[in-house]
Amino acid sequence: MNADFPLLVARELHKAYRKHKIEVPVLTGLDLTVWAGEFLCVVGASGSGKSTLLHLLGTLDQPDRGTILLDGERIDQATPRRRDQLRNSTFGFIFQFYHLLPEFTALENVLMPQLIRTSLWGYFWQRRKLRQRAIELLERVGLGDRLHHRPRELSGGEMQRASIARALMSEPRILFADEPTGNLDELKGREIIDLLRDLNRQQGLTIIMVTHNMDLVAPSDRVVRLTKGKVEAAPPLQMVLPPDGETVSNKQPHHPLIDPRIDPLLRKAL
Ligand code: ADP
Ligand code: MG
Fold first, then answer.
1. What is the spatial distance between Cα 235 and Cα 264, in angstroms, rounded to a whole number?
2. What's the whole-model pTM score?
3. How far is the CA of 168 from the centre of ligand 2 (A)?
4. Ligand 1 interacting residues, C-beta cut-off 6 A
């Protein structure tokens, strides 16, 4: 890794969604540079394209135009196989609604991507090692005493911790966090941010986090705001985001099995 060389670069990104022949432009020439080891907060009103940006950077989706470079490698037009590889090793994802598999325990949820990624035979070959690692990660996120609980037996904060452990299982270099505290109360949200911050500081994990809540931003973070499809200069810390009319309670959780936007994640998770 070269400290003088950016980890992730987005240039002139354009993305529009087409619905009923109406084109909705979301990103309109966005530029962003991310350095290794950064804790980068992406803020902006609801609908400003924050999730879209994360999906493009994380190869869950592709831009209409523009360039994305990871360590100098062009990834915006990578083959499906290369994108799978990136999602399975270089990138980790956590989301507002956790997307844990309800029928499986916390430990099984953390192990599941590895089981899917490797062949069944390969998995059994490494089973002890992988289990040990999954247990260590669950201990690391504070769930050492919840290994065999299913999601419905866990609190929201605990489910998000389990999803962080799942994301860490593949030792990602970049963790994308899309409103990871959006469904948690303030205290639990803060605990999750503290955990992410520790991972960033102690392990040098690069984190790109979308948040609505400027209270969660620390002075040491870099903040970029999305406005009109582009990155605007960092707003001052004390600036509170305008209310955008969208509260957590009126958001319906996506079901990962039926929401096509979650499908790539599910493929990773399974
Ligand atoms: P944010 O995360 O900042 O709230 P999004 O990136 O989710 O914003 O969405 C940006 C805009 O694109 C919104 O107007 C949203 O309705 C629209 N949009 C997002 N995903 C899709 C999609 N799959 N199909 C059509 N429109 C979409
Ligand atoms: Mg979003």
1. 32
2. 0.85
3. 22
4. 17, 19, 24, 26, 44, 46-52, 261
